[in-house]
Every structure is written in C-alpha cells, then in structure tokens.
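Annex B. Sample input.
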Amino acid sequence: MFILGNFLSATAQILKIVLELYMWIMIIRALLTWVNPDPYNPIIQFLNSITEPVLYRVRQLIPMSGVGIDFSPMIVILIIIFLQSFLVNSIGMLAMRLQ
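Annex B, continued. Sample output.
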C-alpha cells in the first residue's frame, strides 16, 4: 500500500503546484486588464487562451451584467484556494494513512 500512498502524495504535490501556478496566472491576467495591453502580443494571447475558458464558465454561472466590474477572476481564485485547502489536503492525508 505504500506505493499507492507515495503515488497519492506525489499527485497532491503536483496538484498543489499546478493550482498555485494557475492562481498566479489568473492574478496576472486580472492586473493586466488595468493597463489595456496589446491584444496581439503573444504573451497576452497565451494568458487569454488559458484563462478565458474558465472565466467564461464562471461568467455563465454567475451573471454580473449590472455591476460593471468583472468579479470572475476573484471567484476563480477563491475556487482555487478552496481546492487547495480541501482537495490537496484530503489527498495528502489519504496518502499519509496509506504509507
């Protein structure tokens, strides 16, 4: 069972890194909207291509048409924090019990 425990531990660590990296990408995307960057810049296109599908889903679920401020990046960041606290910690604890 220690092999499964090690596998789950490694999975939890990788998931934690991926979620944290995506959170920082989301923060950068939100900050860049304040300066109105060139949409043809390859870095901006990359950021938009990896964040827009998630932001689009949040905007569909929680329409905020009358507010005037896009809160979808903040909601995504809160979801990421929840996943880090709940999912990653649960997988890590399960891995510890299996080792």
